[in-house]
Structure to design on (314 residues):
């Protein structure tokens, strides 16, 4: 187990270095520049040069990358002159809001997906299986932003049961829960659909294995047999769940924008719109780091649950 953790961390480090290089270069070659919007359009070349010097934009590219990377490792992702705040402060606040939304969406989506996939897999070909297949296919086919618009129009605009957007954590637990309902319903749909399909496929595959009949022949109860089946089918579910959780933590730009949720997605959208490249750079790096950490934790969890994974590493 320790060997697996060390190997996964060893793989994660070069991935993060590669991502940091790509993010830095993309922000360098994208149209626009870091001093755009900070000085009047009729400013003199000397004024623009002074700003570039203060931001270190006239240094050689390798020097700029190393300076930025060293600062990022110390928690310094730059200063947003447009927002007059440290980028790290902006990201901490936005990531915290996204974490709440993503955690609730992931728990709900994975739990429902596991339940529906288990019911469909253990009742293959029956009505439950057909209904779950239709629901999961619809969940994968309908874009989450379309679901968000429908929910917003019906339950916020028409019935006025829930707020139309924003995070109301400072108004008490009831208000916080009400503000979460519609964004969570939109964000958890795809997670639920993917988890249900993967769980069903895993259950069907494991039920056809020879060891299942062997367990029954040994006198194990049906509940014990189903427990073994679910444990053997859970590995691919963990893999897909890790990707889905990483995507949710990265921030669903459209869903957060539609519901005006002050998370990573909305921050990234507004930063791109205003050409605040230093915020875009920091947000992209944090999202990539989130994906790597989530997948690292999923690999470790897979090894703890599935002995076959530990055997492959040993």
């Amino acid at each position: 187990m320790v060997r697996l953790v060390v190997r996964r961390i060893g793989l994660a480090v070069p991935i993060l270095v590669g991502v940091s290089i790509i993010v830095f270069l993309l922000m360098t070659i994208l149209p626009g520049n870091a001093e755009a919007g900070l000085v009047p359009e009729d400013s003199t070349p000397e004024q623009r040069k002074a700003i570039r010097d203060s931001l270190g934009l006239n240094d050689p590219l390798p020097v700029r990358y190393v300076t930025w990377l060293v600062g990022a490792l110390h928690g310094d992702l730059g200063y947003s002159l447009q927002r007059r705040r440290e980028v790290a402060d902006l990201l901490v606040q936005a990531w915290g809001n996204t974490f709440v939304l993503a955690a609730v969406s992931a728990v709900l989506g994975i739990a429902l997906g596991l339940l529906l996939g288990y019911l469909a897999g253990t009742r293959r070909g029956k009505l439950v299986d057909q209904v779950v297949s239709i629901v999961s296919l619809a969940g994968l086919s309908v874009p989450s932003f379309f679901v968000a618009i429908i929910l917003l129009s019906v339950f916020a605009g028409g019935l006025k049961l829930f707020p139309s957007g924003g995070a109301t954590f400072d108004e008490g637990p009831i208000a916080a829960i009400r503000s979460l309902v519609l964004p969570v319903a939109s964000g958890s749909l795809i997670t639920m659909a993917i988890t249900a399909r993967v769980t069903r496929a895993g259950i069907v595959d494991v039920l056809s294995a020879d060891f299942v009949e062997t367990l029954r022949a040994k006198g194990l109860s049906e509940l014990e047999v189903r427990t073994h089946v679910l444990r053997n089918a859970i590995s691919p579910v963990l893999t897909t769940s890790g990707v889905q959780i990483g995507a949710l933590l990265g921030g669903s730009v459209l869903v957060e924008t539609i519901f005006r949720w002050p998370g990573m997605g909305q921050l990234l959208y507004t930063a791109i719109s205003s050409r605040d490249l230093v915020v875009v750079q920091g947000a992209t790096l944090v999202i990539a780091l989130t994906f790597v950490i989530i997948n690292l934790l999923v690999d470790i969890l897979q090894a703890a649950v599935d002995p076959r994974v530990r055997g492959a590493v040993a």
In short: The chain has a mean pLDDT of 81. The first strand starts at residue 79 and ends at 80. The CA atoms of residues 163 and 267 lie 20 Å apart.
